[in-house]
Design a protein that fits this description.
This protein has helices at about 5-30, 45-60, 65-105, 110-130. By secondary structure, the chain is mostly helical.
Length: about 130
């Protein structure tokens, strides 16, 4: 059973085409499961507005109820901020102890690199805080 060159070429092309089709379908399957996060983080005000809007719609709140929920969220945020500010000195003390403990296990060269690392992290933190407050 000798096959002609044309039928062999056709089989090769069909095998190649089926490989391409399988690759395309596989790529689409994998790409469709990717979860995309928002590139810009929401500010607390944006989160609050979205939360109030969603709860208003889901629970069919009237204007008075929406206003009260918004007030409750404002009071809660203020309380969170008070607790955060009250605990800030202790959190800083714990962080400073951590830094000193890490320095205790480093060589002199590593200590210099660690100091540079900490400065970079502090600059990143300030940049994040500045962009969050806009």
């Amino acid at each position: 059973m000798k096959r002609s060159n044309w039928s062999i070429a056709l089989y090769v092309v069909l095998i190649f085409a089926s490989g391409v089709a399988a690759g395309v379908m596989g790529q689409r399957l994998l790409a469709s499961n990717v979860v995309s996060a928002s590139s810009t983080p929401r500010t607390p005000e944006q989160w609050r507005a979205r939360y109030v809007d969603e709860i208003r719609q889901r629970l069919s709140l009237d204007a008075t109820q929406s206003a009260k929920v918004n007030d409750i969220l404002g009071v809660t945020r203020a309380r969170y901020n008070e607790v955060r500010e009250r605990n800030r000195p202790e959190m800083k003390r714990i962080h400073d102890e951590q830094v000193e403990s890490i320095r205790g296990v480093l060589s002199d060269t590593q200590k210099n690199l660690y100091a540079q690392f900490l400065l970079e992290k502090e600059a990143e933190k300030k940049a994040r805080t500045t962009s969050d407050s806009r």
